[in-house]
Every structure is written in structure tokens, then in C-alpha cells.
Specification:
By secondary structure, this protein is of the alpha+beta class. It is built from eleven helices and eleven strands. It folds into two domains: 240 residues, Nuclear Transport Factor 2, Chain: A, CATH 3.10.450.50; 93 residues, no CATH class.
């Protein structure tokens, strides 16, 4: 995960990058994406302008599937868009689809390096208005539940890899919004591919594709169009982590290395009132002899793997995340039953049908 000996350089780089972005906005990476949008009853198909659009009509008379290919390079990271209709839509039917699409698009564009650097450095204050509600909450499986605004934006923008955090110098370089559907203003569904490539300007491997992460799930929007809730899954994240880091975490050597790195790095970040272990040696002893190593397919657990993930977040809010790395797990890196982790919607959201459009019956 994070090399502790590069930590000081990493922080300095993040600060320098964020200052540069604030003073002189840099050009964002060109993002190519192909979106498959399914709409029914001749509803509008949202797509960014300056796009090449090929429409294919399915066997159903009232359903149209459109492949939308876009290219965007901008300093604002926002792609303007307008609806295209196969026929006259119901009044205002196009607005919410475009709005929901644009919000999801903007969120994922901020996960692309270095777009997320100001948020890593300055936290929630650097998140553009209109993306997340102040009381947003959600579930990211298999990482855990995120119950407020700060938790949520840290997941989306602080956990994505940066070049200094892995031996391949890799980061998200582009994304593909592969699937999108929104049949009511309140709810949308999406599948996104996050392409992870080497970031080594001037080097022979710069831009080399390392691996791809897939995230799929549902979004709930409030009346302002902000994300109020989300229920997303990271697909086969264990394979993604292994390819991102070029490491087989099933081997004792790799597990011992991750424990040592976690303990040395937390000793640099969790200091003073945030200190969790008496020494690096005590940390290594606890994680080696008292905690299971765990798996990236079940991160939300009392494990080394969980603590290594929350270690990444200590750079943004040590007061909140150092306890998660500590011996107790801070109510995050603790064992919860499977039914609680994946199905306790009542406790998280107060209801079980949150991502169902109004009027759609339960089956």
C-alpha cells in the first residue's frame, strides 16, 4: 500500500499539486467514455454535446438503446450535455435524466488523477456544490457503510489510488460510464469502469494500462439533484488490488510486508492525541498475532486488510480514522455479521425500498 518512506514526499506533492491547481487550473486528462442508455416510451436520451451517436432500436417498440461516445478535455471537468429525443417526450422528462447523468459523470471525473488532489488536501470544502447532499450516506460493498458527507467524499475521492501509493505508480486515468438508466427524478443506476494506468511523465511506461475496476449500483437524488444516498458494489476488488500493486496477498511474505508498512505509516500519521499503539513493534505484534489478515473481498472486518484501507484515509482526517487502524478497530474495522453488512437497510436508511422509483410495486 503506502510506502512510509515516501510519505513526506507524498504530502508535499499533494500540497504542491493542490496549490498549483488552485492558482493555475491545469488541463484535465482527456476522458473517453461509451454510455449505453436505455429508455422506454420514447423518453429522452441524455448525451454530451459534440458526440458521435449511433442509435439501435431494440425488439421492443417503445425501447431505444443508444451508444454515446464522447471525448472531453477541459479545465472544469464538467461536460455540457443536451437531450436528444426519438420523439416528443412528456414535459420535463428529459431534464432529470440529463441532471442525474451529469451528476454521476462529474463525481467519477473527480476520481481521475490529479482531479481529486484538492479534495484529498482540503477535504469537503473542495467538493463542488451540487454533487452530494449535506446528509448523504451510503453503502460501498465490500468496504462498508458511510454515514455522513465527510465519510462519503473521503471514500469517493481519497481512496482512489494516486501514483505515490503503489509500486506501479498507477492511478485512475479515465473512466467509462458503461451503463446508465434513470426512469424517475429520484433514482438512477450505473455501471462504471475505472481504467488504472501508470502515471510517470516522461517515462517509457507512462500511460500503460495496469488494470480496470468496475463499480455498479444505485443512486438516490434529492429535489436539488444532489446525491442523497448510494448503494454501490466494487466487483472483484481483490483481483483489482492484486493487479494494482503487483502483489499476491495470499503469500506470508506479502502479508508481513503489508503489516510492516501499515504499522510504520500509522506511526507517522497517528501521533499525539491520535496515537493508537505504543510503538511500531507493538503494532506489528497486534496485527500479526491478534488480528486475522483478512481479504479484500470482505474489507469490513477486524482485519489487517481493513486497517490498511483506513490507513489511506488517515491522511485526510487522522482524528476520525486513526482509531480504525488501532487495536479496537474504532467501530469500523470490526466484525459484523454478513446480514448486517449487506442487508441492514433499515438501520442505514430507515427503509428497504430507497432505490425504487415512486409507484413501482414490490415483487
Amino acid at each position: 500500500m503506502v510506502n512510509p518512506f515516501l510519505y513526506a514526499a507524498q504530502v508535499s506533492l499533494l500540497l504542491a499539486l493542490s496549490r498549483g491547481i488552485t492558482a493555475h487550473p491545469i488541463a484535465r486528462s482527456t476522458v473517453w467514455e461509451t454510455v449505453t442508455v436505455t429508455t422506454c416510451k420514447n423518453a429522452c436520451v441524455p448525451h454530451p454535446t459534440s458526440s458521435s451517436v449511433t442509435s439501435v432500436t431494440s425488439g421492443c417498440d417503445d425501447t431505444t438503446t443508444s451508444e454515446v461516445t464522447t471525448t472531453s478535455t477541459s479545465e472544469t471537468s464538467t461536460t455540457s450535455s443536451s437531450p436528444t429525443c426519438t420523439s416528443s417526450p412528456p414535459p420535463n422528462n428529459d431534464d432529470f435524466r440529463k441532471r442525474n447523468y451529469d451528476t454521476i459523470h462529474r463525481i467519477y471525473n473527480l476520481t481521475i488523477f490529479p482531479n481529486q488532489v484538492p479534495i484529498i488536501t482540503y477535504g469537503g470544502a473542495a467538493v463542488p456544490d451540487g454533487l452530494f447532499a449535506n446528509d448523504t450516506s451510503g453503502r460501498i460493498s465490500p468496504v462498508g457503510n458511510f454515514t455522513d458527507f465527510e465519510d462519503s467524499i473521503e471514500y469517493f475521492f481519497a481512496l482512489p489510488p494516486i501514483p505515490q501509493s503503489n509500486k506501479n505508480n498507477a492511478a485512475f486515468s479515465r473512466f467509462e460510464l458503461a451503463q446508465f438508466s434513470s426512469e424517475c427524478p429520484e433514482v438512477a443506476a450505473s455501471t462504471v469502469y475505472l481504467y488504472t494506468s501508470v502515471v510517470n511523465p516522461g517515462g517509457p511506461d507512462d500511460g500503460k494500462l495496469i488494470t480496470i475496476l468496475r463499480q455498479t449500483g444505485f443512486w438516490k437524488f434529492n429535489a436539488k439533484g444532489e446525491v442523497e444516498n448510494y448503494d454501490l458494489d466494487l466487483i472483484e476488488i481483490d483481483h483489482f488490488i492484486s493487479e494494482l500493486t503487483s502483489t499476491d496477498y495470499d503469500t506470508p511474505e506479502a502479508q508481513a510486508e503489508l503489516i510492516a508498512t501499515t504499522c510504520m505509516t500509522q506511526a507517522l500519521r497517528c501521533v499525539g492525541p491520535y496515537q493508537e499503539y505504543e510503538s511500531i513493534e507493538q503494532c506489528i505484534d497486534v496485527l500479526t498475532n491478534q488480528k486475522k489478515f483478512g481479504s479484500f473481498t470482505n474489507i469490513w472486518s477486524d482485519s489487517v486488510v481493513c486497517r490498511s484501507i483506513h490507513l489511506v484515509l488517515t491522511i485526510t482526517r487522522p482524528a476520525a480514522h486513526c482509531p480504525h487502524v488501532g487495536p479496537s478497530g474504532g467501530m469500523k474495522c470490526v466484525d459484523y455479521p454478513y446480514l448486517v453488512r449487506e442487508f441492514d437497510d433499515e438501520r442505514l436508511w430507515g427503509r428497504t425500498d430507497l432505490f425504487r422509483c415512486p409507484g413501482v410495486p414490490a415483487y
